[in-house]
Structures are given as C-alpha cells and as structure tokens.
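Suppose you are handed a protein chain with no further information: no name, no annotation, nothing but its sequence. What can you learn? This example shows the usual starting point.
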Amino acid sequence: MMGLVYAEITLINGDDLTLMRRHFIGEDEVKSMKINMLVDSGAYFMAINENIQSYLQLPLVEKRKAVMANGEVQEFDVVGPIQVKFKNRRCVTDAFVLKGDNEPLLGAIPMEDMDVMIHPLKGELIVNPESPDFAMMKMK
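A reasonable first move is to predict its three-dimensional structure. Written in structure tokens, the prediction is:
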C-alpha cells in the first residue's frame, strides 16, 4: 500500500498577480509561499489552513459545506483566487480554509487542471509523462 504523498507547491495570491500585471504593486509585493502539501486524489478541492490564509491574505469568496472523511458535514470559508504552481505547471483555484494549522491538501480538481498525477511506484507527484512540457486538457 502506498503511503502519504507530499509535494512542494507554491501558492500565490491571485489578486496580487493581477495588481502586479496592472502595475499597481511591484513583484516584491505579491504574497506567495512554498509549502509541502499533502497530495490527496481522494479529495476534490484544495484546502489550506488559517495560517496560510492569514499570510496570503486571500479574500473570502463564499461559504460552503463539505462532507468530511468521517461523514460529518462542516461549513468552511472558501477563499481565492490562488495560483498554484508545481514544477512547470500552474492553475488558478479557490480553496477551503481549515481551522488553525491543519494540514493543507491538494485535491483532484487542481491536479487534473495542472495535468499532474501520483506516480504509484515512486509515491510522488509528477507531471504527466505523456505531456511533459505543458498541461494537456481534454476538451470533449
């Protein structure tokens, strides 16, 4: 059985990127951080914790309910946009905010968007070997 898979992921405040492109702030003012994130293809969305949210200062988009692994339904803040980077891949997504310093996780939707996968033998996140230079998406 494969153990837990972690990957070094860069998270960037998407609003800051827009402000930088429009020359309202400098590149050095864009809030970003590298974290070692749990890769969980069994989860759909991305989840960050309150500490990451506080550092990146991501705005509240909405509140959503989610079913936890134990079957319990909880309500979460959803924040964004966040640019997510792994190796030569990127996507923009929102994220659920977990309490305190709970472990952040990268779910299936951002993984699919970036065209990355878990290598079953190495137990690590990799870019799709069938499209190593850029993300390939199915349009149908």
